[in-house]
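S1.2 Input.
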Amino acid sequence: MAIVCAAVSASAQTDKSANRAKLSQPAPVNPRQTGNNTFQFALANGMQVLVIPDHRAPVATQMLWFKVGAVDDPPGISGLAHFFEHMMFRGTKAVPGDLFSQTIAKNGGETNAFTDHDYTAFYEQIAKDRLPLAMKLEADRLANLDLSDSHVGPERDVVLEERRMRVENEPQALMGEQMRAALHLSHPYGRPVIGWSEEVRRIDRVSAQNFYDHHYAPNNAILVVAGDVTPDEVRKMAQDAYGKVAARELQPRAEFTEPPRLAETRMSITRADARVPVFSRIYRVPSYAVGTPGQAEGLETFAQLLGGDQTSVLYRVLVEQKKLASDAGASYDGNVRDAAEFSVYAVPRPGVTLEALEKAMDQVLGVSALALPRDADLARAKTQLIAGVTFRRDSQFAMASAYGQALTIGLTVDDVNEWPARIRAVSAENVRKAAQLLSKKQAVTGYLIPGGAK
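S1.3 Output.
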């Protein structure tokens, strides 16, 4: 799960490596069209650029994606990538303190950032004529960030307080963190993006400087600009701002192969601050980046059909028909470089045990693995998925996010553009095969139980 912050504050398989290498291949200096309305080029320093013209309003969204995230945290210092997202708003000599955010705001824009396991992204939404200013500000902090002790220490305390508020004081977030740590075994996806508290406390100026020097470089970045611009305009602006920043020697990204899971993991967490009991299960499944063709689309469609909303199978059966739950759902997070997660959950009605609810959940999943979904249900699920993406693409930010996320995990512009067609092609048999991927040996099951001492 991505951590979003306020701006003020071993060798891989051959096909996997080839897929990730697509973006790193040399690109021509002149913009080339790579989709119906997208253009790509590269600066001499290695920065990759994607332009998405959108002339409906004189505004633009700039997103700077770095191919570094929580998986790149050094051993023993989890949370460093997320911490560094914070540090990028601490200022430079030329733009000290929070003057970066103040300048964007005074020019009518918005700025923010977020970190996930596979990437970190920074963005500004601003009037078109102020886009060169936004680029100049980003280029400055890419080259000249102030990493003095007076900045590192206080920001480390800010992150620790954020962790207390978002995780340690939220029982469901705490259980999710524990479940993912058990699910991914030795893979860094099991470490929380925000980091473990004791390891966050180890972050100092030296570790921050080393991280900055070896990850925050133009040759490790993808600039995505969506808005009232042309490819040639963006090329000139990007060259003027980012072209002056020198490439750096990068820390190579480690490749991980997860060990096989031999049995289901189960845990029960009792918390005095838990408001309601919750049943939850997370499965380790293929992602868009590493699955075989059609697997991720099948899982995406199955998640929508199974638990995407109040028309879904889980809601109809557990909430409306059997009246065992007050809420139930499912989700699939497949936009990752390695193994993905498929999650199901349910909240029992008063008097219903978590054991009874789990049994009913397993019955629904068992039927889904054997029986084909009804045509009407499948059609509705696919329509909902495609409509959701269509509506999101009406937003510059959503368009830039979709392409930026895909490129940072090793996918291509075509993967984004062709996704609706691939969802339309998902058959009932594809969905059944996706349901059969949900093995308890590849899962962690959790009970959150109210009561006892915190």
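S1.4 Remarks. DSSP finds 17 helices and 13 strands in the chain.
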